[in-house]
Amino acid sequence: MVQHKTDNSYTGSQIQVLEGLEPVRKRPGMYIGSTGYDGVHHLIKEIADNSIDEAIAGYATKINVILLADGGVTVTDDGRGIPVDKHPKTGLSTLETVLTVLHAGGKFGGGGYKVSSGLHGVGSSVVNALSSHMIAEVSLAGQLYRIEFERGRTSVPFKKVGPTDRPDGTSITFYPDPEIFKETVDFDYKWVVDYLRHQAYLTKGAYVSVRDERTNERAAFYFEGGIQSYVKHLNIGKEVVSDNIFYVEKQVEDTMVEVAIQYNDSFTEVLKPFANNVLTPDGGTHVVGFRSALTRVINDYARKTGLLKEKEDNLTGDDIREGLTAIILVKLPDPQFEGQTKNKLGNPEVRRYVEQVMNEYFAYYLDENPSVAKKIVGKALLAARARQAARAARDNVIRKGALDGLGLPGKLADCSSKDPKESELYIVEGDSAGGSAKTGRDSRTQAILPLRGKVLNVERARLDRMLSNNEIVSLIKALGVGIGDQFDVNGLRYHRIIIMTDADVDGSHISTLLLTFFFRYMKEVVDGGHIYLAKPPLFLLKAGTKKYYAYSDDERDATVDKLISDRKAAGASIDESLDRTKQAGITLLQRYKGLGEMDADQLWDTTMNPDNRVLVQVKVEDAEKADAIFTKLMGDEVDLRKTFIQSRAKFVNLEELDV
Fold first, then answer.
1. Which tens digit of pLDDT belongs to each residue from 52-77?
2. Residue 9, pLDDT above cutoff 50
3. What DSSP state is assigned to residue 463?
4. Domain match, 79 and 64 both
5. Of 13, 48, 561, 595, which sits 20 to 30 A from 129 (CA to CA)?
6. Is 504 tagged catalytic?
7. Which runs of consecutive H residues, i.e. helices, occur in 311-428?
8. So what's the pLDDT on residue 383?
9. What is the pLDDT of residue 105?
10. Is 512 within the bounds of a domain?
């Protein structure tokens, strides 16, 4: 029952009014999402995006990023330079206004930018608020202007420094504030390289560079081909249908539509949609228009050329997009993104613009490249037949009522709980380990699914072949989410799916095969944070009646060192001529070669007990990188796989391998 309070001392003095940039420092997560690794790097993006906007607008040609040795970062462009004249509303220089006033910028319809990636105009001022120190310099008409800030407040007033030989442009140097970013203020060079590479692909003709003063690493990007170069990059390691990339760039009213398409021999679609250089992973109107036109144009071409017979049904969008790699880039003056994260474009007119361009120009492309068109249609026809075969196979193995326990695989030892939030599924390598896991588990919340041998490599198989594989079918049925066009992540029966394999080469291979399956066919399960890798111990150490488990060579050595130290502290006589294992009083040091060597109690204690176990959550921060790695490791190109392994051989500790 709610207790009614009679204290009436609630006054205006208790209402906090935050001025200037104080709201940003008070609630940084509202502006940059987090104050961890992602938030720190978001600061670079906010500043660099402004320079990219200058390039998109046609004013800048060079963007340089320097990761400073003292922990700061400098972003410089050769654009117009932030204006330095007095702002009519604030009475301050426009430079100071932009850096200290939220929602002040050239992206609100004042004519500063026709197209920009920034939407809310908060970027530069937010970075200033969250930096311990910021220096802004502007070169204009041979004169240099400068202002400095400490935690969002002006520390060195705006002034005209004097003549300079620098070209016009803006240079921003900032240092993330450790008071805000308690986890880290260090910049990841690789993150910066990847971000700038993408921006260079999307801004053809722009020269983008990064230099790391901490390590002397550097990189530079310039792609005259723009998104055509991006498509080529995404298709590395895949056999393409044709080297001839479809590309169109067309202005429709006030919107620029740019599309690049190339098909490959894979069974998956890679589509990267952008609006004003902002990735929109949830799609939007530009994606709807693209897919609608692509399906219509290919079906029309297949009909008129007789590749699709009169009695045959039209090809579906899924059939047509199998093996498709495409980039869609639209540039428009007033993008309407859904939410602060800008994950989805909402402008309704953009669907019509993209459809119009695709209907006209992709139809021309197919007519003018009949050999390519025939291969594209042929691939879609094969996909349609595979889809029909997969549907028949799926109907045989996936039944209604799976969530109620009907139609579950016989080898599954299910848990008694029906609450997915507390339920776990252990996917275990082999019947031996599966037997120990079933005996040692907590049967209320832990389910066990043993798999025999290595599962199918789905990187090289369509859905119809997958559904003829018993291990894959057992896994699909156990999870309860369906597959293909019937996939529904809401049906997931276990919110933790734990892959538990031996700590050897075969175990790693099985884990990789399972991860390939999840990434290619159940990516939403991965994205939801439901996939984990169990980390079983490598060593068992016994000293007297006590047992110790070590998960690496270093941990084994540290355990030995501690036991020796404890014995010395207790006054024991240590014969230092003996092996260190004997000095520690260890009577057994066993290296596990597989999970099957553990009995039920050991498996529970080391790998399944929530109080002791070590789990590694599988996250895909960059789907593009993951796609490339799975293609290299699990695809048909042997040379790519060989090069990948050779380039990383120096990182392997051969002492840990059973050779």
1. 988 988 899 999 999 999 999 999 99
2. no
3. H
4. yes
5. 13
6. yes
7. 317-320, 348-368, 370-397
8. 87
9. 57
10. yes
Domain boundary among 370, 393, 416: 393
Residue 605 annotated to the active site: no
Q: Is 654 helix (H, G, I), strand (E, B) or coil?
A: helix
Give the tens place of pLDDT for each residue, 531-570.
998 988 888 899 888 888 888 888 899 999 999 898 888 8
CB 387 within 8 A of CB 318: yes
Indicate which residue of 282, 349, 506, 524 is catalytic. 506
CA distances from 124 to 68, 170, 217, 557 (A): 19, 12, 27, 50
Q: pLDDT tens-digit profile of 434-490?
A: 888 999 999 999 999 998 877 777 776 777 777 778 888 889 889 999 887 778 999
Residue 49 annotated to the active site: no
Is 566 a member of any domain?
no
Q: Which of 429, 459, 471, 627 is catalytic?
A: 429
Q: Looking at the structure, tell me whether residues 443 and 366 fall in a common domain.
A: no
Residues 65 and 178 in one domain: yes
Per the model's pLDDT, the better-predicted residue between 391 and 169 turns out to be 169
Domain that includes residue 641, residue range: 632-659
Among candidate residues 49, 464, 502, 627, the one labeled active-site is 502
SS3 category, 656 = helix
Bridge partner residues of 41 (DSSP): none
Q: Residue 406: what pLDDT?
A: 41
Q: How far apart are CA 119 and CA 333, in angstroms?
A: 10
The pLDDT of 480-505, averaged and rounded, is: 87
Task: Give CA–CA dist 572/524, Å, rounded.
Answer: 57
Q: Which of 504, 527, 624, 636 is catalytic?
A: 504
Question: Are 276 and 331 spatial neighbours (Cβ–Cβ below 8 Å)?
Answer: yes
Annotated catalytic, 7?
no
The DSSP code sequence of 614-648 is -EEE---S-HHHHHHHHHHHHSS-HHHHHHHHHHH
Residue 426 shares a structural domain with residue 389: no
What percentage of residues in the chain have a pLDDT greater than 90? 48
* Residue 603 CA from chain centroid, whole number: 33
Tell me which range, 83-97, 211-225, 574-588, is most confidently predicted by mean pLDDT.
211-225
Find out whether 65 and 196 touch, Cβ atoms under 8 Å: yes
Query: What's the chain's Rg over C-alpha atoms?
Result: 30
Q: For the chain, give the percent of residues with pLDDT over 70.
A: 85
**Of 221, 253, 283, the domain-final residue:** 221
The pLDDT, as a whole number, for residue 650 is: 43
What's the residue count for the chain?
659
> Do strands 424-429 and 278-279 pair parallel, antiparallel, or not at all (unpaired)?
unpaired
Number of Cβ within 10 Å of residue 659's Cβ equals 6
